């Protein structure tokens, strides 16, 4: 580049002198500009500092100007006064550069305008998202320090062995009665007297494995996975009505086939809704019990829990499982009552719900028929009233001490499926009034010990879980005894620890393991 610059300097010196080869003039470099361009001063070239006079060239490609020399004196004599081609090219270059600058400035202004509009729209969207997030945070966010303050520091101790013994006694008693009540039906149905009891033993083994795992986990794990467990149970209930997935028995689609066995998702949901509501009331306890703000306590203490319970019950109603719907609703209402919901409002809603159910029962032919059979089963002794009447015959045949274990006559194909919902009638027939009272007392002791564990639980979640599980077992036993004694209409409710079944027994054993896990932390740290 230095050589090319020297060549340009030599050519310029030749054109300025005409006949002389060089004309050196010392000074600073001045570049004359047009009307739309100001003077720009360039420093001397640092590559040849010894040269006292060095012309320069501009970046726009115009001819270099002599240092400190007017433009008129630098032109040849024959071209003075005329428009030089260098000045024309210079002006055109300046004009083009100015046009480019204007165009680029207009483009920049337009892009800035579009960018500002986009930024405003993005900022508006972000503001809306932030406002929505702030609303949900204000509504449902909870300070974790409140949860930590409510928790009582407990020492890990041993299991509640009284409760464990009660569970084992109930399970052993129920297993004996399942065999006694089922061998005649099993011989008739499967040509094997041990078919049902053998399967029951398999379910017991699986249940003990599940109970062992449940006893090993700490209560914090159940609190952590309460919502995922509920969601899984909810999804299982959603797929039951789908043909090809759900299995129907007796006109009701309630089961999902796994190939080697079938599961009943409604039994899993009994545990799922207990964990979900316990987690909910533990998390929002301050807002549920904020009775000074009626709207706040009503929303968090009544409407939100009822929404959870209602959606769950609707899925079970689709399965035509009325008894499980009743149990699920009663479990939810019990947890709402214990969790701190407004009792007056809860009682008012319960009253309105009862009136609605009564009107529904009186206005539909099916429910009117069920009520008529409940009040007068003898009107249809070989039809809808047959099972109720045969159960009452079995209870009346037992007397005070019963006919003896294994000596029941009603189990020989009179009481339909005596190993399931009507197993309590066989207990009354074989063990009499004494056996019936023993079963009732065992469930009362179960409830008493369970509520003691709940009172000593380390936090609100654990306490509500124990209360929910114990209430479910006790309510189910109470309703089963009421059904078989014809105290309420027949709804097909199983008796816990006694009735034959796979899903119900396995889930029941897991629930017992959860209670025993919580019982380890009953001792308060001093």
Properties at a glance:
5 strands, 526 residues, mainly alpha, disordered N terminus
In short, what is this structure?
This protein is mostly helical and 526 residues long.
Radius of gyration: 46 Å
Helix content class: 55-70%
Tell me the distance between the termini. 91 Å
Structural classification: mainly alpha
Describe the structure.
- The strands form 2 sheets. This protein has a 3-stranded antiparallel β-sheet with strand order 2-3-4, with no helix packed on it. It has a two-stranded antiparallel sheet with strand order 1-5.
- The radius of gyration is 46 Å and the shape is globular.
- It is mainly alpha-helical.
- The relative contact order is 0.10.
- It is built from 18 helices and 5 strands.
Question: What's the helix and strand layout?
Answer:
Layout: H1 2-17, H2 71-74, H3 85-140, H4 144-150, E1 154-155, H5 161-190, H6 195-216, H7 219-224, H8 226-239, E2 246-249, E3 252-257, E4 262-263, H9 265-283, H10 285-288, H11 294-318, H12 322-339, H13 343-363, H14 365-375, H15 386-398, H16 423-455, H17 460-484, H18 503-519, E5 523-524
Helix pairs in contact: 5-6, 5-16, 6-18, 8-9, 9-11, 9-12, 9-17, 9-18, 11-12, 12-17, 13-14, 15-16, 16-17, 17-18
């Amino acid at each position: 580049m230095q050589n090319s610059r020297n060549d340009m300097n030599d050519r310029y010196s030749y054109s300025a002198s005409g006949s002389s080869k060089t004309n050196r003039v010392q000074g600073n470099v001045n570049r004359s500009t047009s009307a739309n361009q100001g003077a720009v001063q360039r420093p001397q070239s640092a590559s040849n500092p010894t040269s006292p006079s060095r012309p320069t060239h501009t970046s726009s490609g115009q001819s270099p100007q002599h240092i400190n020399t007017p433009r008129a004196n630098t032109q040849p004599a024959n071209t003075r006064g005329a428009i030089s081609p260098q000045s024309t090219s210079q002006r055109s270059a300046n004009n083009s550069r100015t046009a480019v600058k204007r165009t680029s400035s207009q483009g920049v202004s337009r892009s800035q305008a579009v960018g500002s509009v986009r930024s405003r729209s993005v900022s508006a969207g972000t503001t809306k998202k932030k406002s929505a997030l702030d609303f949900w945070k204000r509504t449902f966010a909870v300070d974790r320090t409140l949860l930590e303050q409510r928790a009582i520091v407990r020492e890990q101790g041993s299991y509640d062995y009284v409760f464990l013994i009660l569970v084992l006694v109930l399970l052993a008693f129920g297993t004996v009665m399942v065999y006694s009540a089922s061998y005649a039906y099993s011989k008739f149905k499967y040509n094997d007297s041990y078919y049902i009891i053998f399967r029951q033993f398999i379910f017991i083994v699986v249940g003990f494995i599940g109970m062992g795992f449940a006893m090993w986990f700490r209560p914090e794990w159940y609190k952590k996975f309460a919502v995922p467990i509920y969601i899984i149970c909810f999804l299982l209930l959603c797929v039951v009505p789908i043909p090809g997935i759900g299995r129907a028995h007796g006109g009701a689609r309630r089961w999902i086939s796994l190939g080697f066995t079938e599961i009943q998702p409604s039994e899993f949901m009994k545990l799922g809704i207990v964990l979900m509501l316990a987690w909910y009331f533990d998390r929002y306890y301050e807002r549920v019990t904020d009775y000074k703000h009626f709207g706040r306590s009503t929303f968090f203490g009544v409407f939100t829990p009822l929404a959870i319970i209602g959606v769950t019950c609707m899925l079970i109603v689709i399965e035509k499982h009325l008894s499980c719907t009743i149990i699920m609703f009663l479990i939810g209402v019990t947890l709402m009552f214990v969790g701190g919901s407004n009792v007056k409002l809860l009682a008012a809603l319960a009253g309105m719900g009862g009136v609605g159910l009564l009107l529904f029962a009186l206005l539909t032919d099916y429910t009117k028929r069920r009520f008529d059979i409940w009040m007068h089963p003898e009107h249809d002794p070989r039809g809808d009233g047959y099972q109720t009447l045969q159960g009452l015959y079995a209870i009346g045949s037992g007397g005070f001490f019963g006919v003896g274990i294994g000596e029941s006559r009603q189990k020989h194909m009179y009481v339909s499926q005596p190993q399931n919902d009507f197993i309590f009638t066989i207990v009354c027939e074989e063990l009499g009034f004494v056996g019936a009272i023993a079963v009732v007392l065992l469930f009362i002791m179960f409830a008493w010990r369970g509520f003691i564990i709940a009172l000593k639980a380390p936090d609100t979640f654990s306490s509500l879980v124990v209360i929910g599980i114990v209430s479910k077992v006790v309510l189910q036993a109470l309703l089963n005894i009421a059904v078989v004694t014809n105290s309420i209409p027949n709804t097909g409710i199983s008796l816990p620890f006694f009735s034959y079944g796979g899903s119900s027994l396995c889930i029941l054993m897991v629930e017992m393991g959860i209670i025993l896990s919580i019982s380890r932390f009953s001792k308060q740290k001093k």
